[in-house]
């Protein structure tokens, strides 16, 4: 569903991403781990077509992102670290707008159901987003992904800054989506959360995907040791 | 999708307190300028109608006197104020509104409001045209500068882009949404404007048939002008890295395009096609008139020739034997000799002004402010062309008046009889000055270029906005 083939991004002499090859199958949650500047966000931005690769290919559902950026986006949903919404609109209005941008038409009750499904309290749906917490905005982001019925979910540090309860709820949502066959690529610093909801974990360092490991085959403590070893080397 | 984007944009603005405050202020400014314009227009019209009546009465009741002396008593012609002058006063502040018509001279206009005002007037009166041409683009800039750059900084643009929306669709949707929000300001202002025109007495009998196409064309011109500002602002917002940079660039562009460049273009046009100062022009006309022949100077060579020709025409040896008064013939001849001088000089001056205007109109393809200024004043009947047309009409009237007077001397007096007088019966033969302003169809050709420039600017800036939106960076 999601495939990077020798994906490389350079800014002059600086290598942001160095021949990364990975694939994420439907129902899989691939977590990219790594320090700041390791290339996690760049990978996601290349899949979104926000950046053009220097070389290599980013493929979504068999389509080349650089060649068909709009078509590939039909299959994608994206939740960044900060889900920035329009503060003067309500949660429902924000969802309605972003869903419309994807070509979707939903009734008000459908929109409300999606927001509730994403975990937003019912009483907050018609409140302006300007008063929402970060966790609530993330939930609107999830609702946007749900409304799109995306086959691929790209998550960029989605739990950063969330309280443990909100993080936990978020992990559950991701797992539920992957169970429905959604392929998830998640960039995160949070080893615990990655181990909890990921099916495969990749460690990135200086633009390279240095190793990948199945989440079920490694313990939390071992993952931390492995991560720190790669960071030090 | 376009509707959804436009709807979101509109809703977002309508709920933004800053937008409401700025829009209300702008609406207040527009209404204030409209009401002030209507009041000014009404008082001018009343004043001029009254003055025209008074001067007609004075003309008719000036008493028995020599007809030529009566002609020198003179009459004033007052420039009527068109209904749309309440929107745009054009050159009225500088060109003068009345002219004294007397024998031998084509006088200049008097009573220019600028003469009675401080130099502050030159920075622009608070007219509806000033608000629409200068202040409203600022509002559009403030509404639009963050459309892309702000969303990019806030992060909503990448979320929108990830949804798979075409950036050109987003640009057009935003343009529609912002236009809708501007409608909240412009629709009430237009309704008030129409009500002011009708209820405020600006619509007079006879103005109705021409007023509708004029108003519609004026509205279309302003909509194109606002569209250009909107699309240009969107393009800059898409191109600029930050909203602050977009705002700086747009404000700089506004200052350059509305305050500096038009003046530079006008100066360049004047350098390319220079016009004399009013003093130099008057001196030149006076000098040429002196060489044309003087009806009051019996030793003038041309006058001598006229005497011989007249004697020959009537087959007599002495002027006293003429069946008509030679004074009437010579006075009219003096006028006739002067007309080519006036016509040549005024036509040359008018041609230079037209060339200067052509430079400004051509520059209007790059500076829409020049096009809208020209169209706005033209459609309001307050531009130089309208003034020139009125001036020519007064000159035709002056020549008619003088001919009636001179013919009276010619056919009713006797040569050498300095005691001939006439009175009200003669004065009543001089018709009341009735001016028929230019109609929209008369002005078709002069409106074509600025209107084309605005239309071209509208479509070009729309294309630029779409192109910039498509090529913009999604990430900050």
Tell me the number of strands of chain B: 3
Average per-residue pLDDT of chain A, rounded, comes to 90
Largest sheet composition of chain B: 3 strands, antiparallel
Taken from the alpha-carbon principal axes, the silhouette of chain A is: globular
Structural class by secondary-structure content of chain B: mainly alpha
What's the number of structural domains of chain B? 1
Instruction: Summarize the biggest pleated sheet of chain A.
Output: 6 strands, mixed
Would you mind describing this structure in some detail?
The complex is a heterodimer of chains A (233) and B (476). By secondary structure, chain A is α/β, with parallel strands linked by helices. Chain A is 37% helix and 27% strand. A 6-stranded mixed beta sheet of chain A has the order 6-7-8-3-9-10, with helices on both faces. Chain A has a 4-stranded antiparallel beta sheet with strand order 2-1-4-5. The longest helix of chain A has 16 residues. Chain A is globular, with a radius of gyration of 17 Å. The model of chain A has no long low-confidence stretch (mean pLDDT 90). Chain B has one domain. Chain B has a 3-stranded antiparallel beta sheet. The relative contact order of chain B is 0.14.
